[in-house]
Specification:
99 residues, alpha+beta
Length: 99
């Protein structure tokens, strides 16, 4: 995200899951963007959050991060059905996120 206020996405799927907006003065707003599911966390959302965190961690101009959700809910939690359907062993997904 650039200091001039542009918006960037951090997503590994075809659907945009996380947006990063610069609010100026080193403040970034990370927005969970899956409003049709009340921003429930699925694997692409976890991956996008991790990508956004890595991007912001490496930016020396960042002073504060605000985490918010698009739509009527911040986040309803884990999308269990989606995560369980990703593969035969959902624990592999957890291991992948912890790498």
């Amino acid at each position: 995200t650039s200091p001039d206020g542009d918006t960037r996405s951090s997503s590994t799927s075809s659907e945009q899951r996380v947006q990063i907006k610069s609010l100026g003065d080193g403040i970034r707003n990370v927005i969970l963007s899956r409003p049709s599911k009340m921003n429930a966390l699925d694997m692409p959302m976890f991956e996008s959050i991790a990508g956004a965190a890595a991007q912001l961690r490496d930016d020396p101009t960042v002073r504060a991060i605000i985490l918010s959700g698009d739509g009527r809910a911040f986040c309803t939690g884990l999308d269990v059905k989606s995560v369980a359907n990703v593969g035969s062993n959902p624990l592999k997904n957890v291991d992948r996120l912890l790498e």
